[in-house]
Design brief:
Elements: E1 3-8, H1 12-27, E2 31-32, E3 41-46, H2 51-67, E4 74-79, H3 80-84, H4 86-91, E5 99-101, H5 109-117, E6 128-130, E7 151-155, E8 157-158, H6 169-173, E9 177-178, H7 181-193, E10 198-202, E11 210-211, E12 214-215, H8 216-224, E13 231-235, H9 244-252, E14 259-261, H10 269-274, H11 281-294, E15 299-306, H12 313-326, E16 330-335, H13 343-347, H14 354-377, E17 383-391, E18 399-404, E19 409-413, E20 422-430, E21 434-442
Parallel strand pairs: 1-2, 1-3, 3-4, 4-5, 5-6, 7-10, 10-13, 14-15, 15-16, 19-21
Antiparallel strand pairs: 8-9, 11-12, 17-18, 17-20, 18-19, 20-21
The protein binds 5'-deoxyadenosine and iron/sulfur cluster.
Residues 49-50, 166-167, 263, 265, 303, 305, 334, 336-337, 339 line the site of 5'-deoxyadenosine (5AD).
């Protein structure tokens, strides 16, 4: 039996895809190992959303090959780099990888691995690849292995049609396609039967989900009817796809968590237009107001890019202005990183100096830290419903940790509770990153 070692980089969709890959290979009789040192095949499920993600993978390949000098180990590259860096990966003599498979080709993996392991005379030493992007593949017939035990991930749509000019995803993962609501609900039922209490619906552009006229609001309602599942989250949405009926379902359906990720990317209208985000600063702020009018305590997070080509210091200040106006609970802030194939790479030179990008990211991170801390301090004295996940990794094994409805980590003293329990926890302390509290009672859910 061939042993596979697989390592994952990048977003949650990749983590999920790794479980799809394990499921496909496991069914075909492959085994798995936790160490790259005794694997027959090493798979790296890669990300190419920013340059440093790419670089990490290159240095990892070298490290593995150095560690395994002289051994017969096969290396396969999966994920977004497979589609986006196919040529570089296959033609670089210093990178002796054996095969690559893009995000829509994982059902072909057993064959790719068997081909590459065949004797040289039967073409075994030829680099093999399948990076075809599919209009249809949703892996709706593959049940991913899930390891967490409390939360299960579930991809409901794949691909992206938005073509934000900075983003490589439409090229690496192809066009949008959604699974049928019935197929999603069937899988959620199966997960509930296995004891999962929470599902997180995944998609590159999850709220543009649409299957034969059934939209994302419909899907959330359908999933919320599954007994045993108490919480539904979703990621990652686009601000353009929040029609009122969807906001109402999020605000009113008790199982849908009161938390929305709302990627802003930039605050200035000219930059937003160059990014092809399809909303203005005002439209974004109006959406935040609408969300808060429906549910004032909605937890909001965002993604921001600093130093997009031609963004001036004044225009950057408008991002600051939006952050100060909204006061997000948390934010992921990135320096613009030019990606091959993207519209921005073809049309707009990456002209904001690195030092200026650094100045901007430092400034936004400071603002966000202040906001996160203020928001968290505001929770002190409240009682939050917490889903217990595990022993705390933060301080000591004497603590448990879970997440509240808004997805914030809550740490509390250990007691006679179990993974998957819902508890009321009174919040007593806060840092910018976590909440601490004391359990009040266990809920009968
Ligand atoms: N440079 C910097 N950040 C990027 N992101 C996507 N593409 C790039 C890029 N080229 C960020 C966006 C997106 C998040 C997942 O990654 O903020 O929302
Ligand atoms: Fe990239 Fe924009 Fe699609 Fe998100 S919505 S995956 S940022 S192109």
């Amino acid at each position: 039996m061939k042993k596979i070692f697989i390592e994952t980089y990048g977003c949650q969709m990749n983590v999920y895809d790794t479980e799809i890959v394990k499921s496909v290979l496991g069914k075909d009789g492959f085994g798995f190992t936790e160490s790259e040192m005794d694997a027959d095949v090493v798979l790296l499920n890669t990300c190419s959303v920013r340059e440093n993600a790419n670089n990490k993978v290159y240095s990892r390949i070298h490290k593995i090959l150095n560690g395994r000098k002289g051994d017969d180990v096969k290396i396969g590259i999966l994920g977004c780099m497979a589609t986006n860096f196919r040529k570089q990966l296959l033609e670089n003599p210093k990178l002796p990888i054996d095969f690559i498979a893009g995000p829509d080709s994982y059902k072909r993996l057993p064959q790719l691995i068997n081909d590459i392991s065949a004797p040289v005379e039967t073409n075994g030493a030829v680099k093999n690849f399948d990076v075809t992007l599919s209009e249809f593949e949703t892996y709706s017939d593959v049940y991913p292995t899930q390891s967490d035990g409390v939360n299960a991930w579930l991809a409901v749509m794949r691909g992206c049609d938005n073509f934000c000019t900075f983003c490589v995803v439409p090229y690496t993962r192809g066009r949008e396609r959604s699974r049928s609501p019935e197929n999603v609900v069937d899988e959620v039922k199966r997960l509930a039967d296995q004891g999962y209490r929470q599902v997180t619906l995944l998609g590159q552009n999850v709220n543009s989900y649409n299957y034969e006229g059934n939209d994302f609001a419909h899907l959330l309602e359908a999933v919320s009817e599954v007994n045993g599942i108490e919480r539904i989250r979703f990621t990652s949405p686009h601000p353009k796809d929040f029609p009122r009926p969807l906001l109402q379902v999020i605000a009113e359906n008790p199982k849908v968590c009161k938390q929305i990720h709302l990627p802003l990317q930039a605050g200035n209208d000219r930059v937003l237009e160059m990014m092809n985000r399809t909303y203005t600063q005002k439209e974004f702020l109006d959406l935040v107001d609408e969300i808060r009018s429906l549910y004032p305590k909605m937890i909001l997070s965002t993604d921001i890019i600093v130093g997009f080509p031609t963004e001036t210091a004044d225009e950057f200040e408008e991002t600051v202005k939006v952050m100060e106006a909204v006061e997000f609970d948390s934010a992921f802030i990135f320096k613009y990183s030019e990606r091959p194939q993207t519209i921005a790479q073809r049309k707009f030179p990456d002209d904001v100096p690195e030092a200026e990008k650094t100045r901007r990211i430092v400034k936004l991170n400071e603002i966000q830290k202040r906001h996160s801390y203020q928001k968290n301090l505001g929770h002190i004295g409240e009682v939050h419903e917490v889903l217990l996940e595990k022993e705390s990794t933060r301080k000591s094994a004497d603590d448990f940790q879970g997440r509240n409805d808004g997805n914030k980590i809550v740490i509390f003293p250990r007691g006679d509770y179990h993974k998957g329990n819902f508890l009321n926890v009174e919040i007593t302390e806060a840092t910018p990153h976590v909440l601490r509290g004391k359990p009040v009672n266990v809920l009968n859910k």
